[in-house]
Design brief:
mainly alpha, de novo design (two linked rop proteins), 71% helix, elongated
């Protein structure tokens, strides 16, 4: 039996839906950014949902909050990169 509490979270669902939109936008970036800025934006965008999922799987609210703060850091990183 696999418990996946993160899948019930609207914020996780929104973060997962956000990633393909980011990838679509990145198609318009210049080729010389494919391994620089584009790569960093991809990693930061996927990091949001990954950290929400990991935090939701933790046993304490304190741990969950910690991973939500990491996700917020990734969002701030995206804001800066874009």
């Amino acid at each position: 039996m696999s418990i996946r509490p993160h899948k019930k979270l609207k914020v996780w669902q929104d973060a997962v839906d956000f990633v393909p939109k980011v990838y679509l936008i990145l198609r318009s970036f210049p080729d010389d950014e494919k391994f620089g800025l584009t790569s960093q934006i991809r990693r930061a965008s996927t990091s949001v949902s990954i950290n929400i999922a990991e935090g939701a799987a933790r046993s304490s609210k304190k741990d969950f909050a910690h991973f939500l703060y990491i996700s917020m850091g990734s969002i701030s990183e995206l804001d800066t990169l874009i």
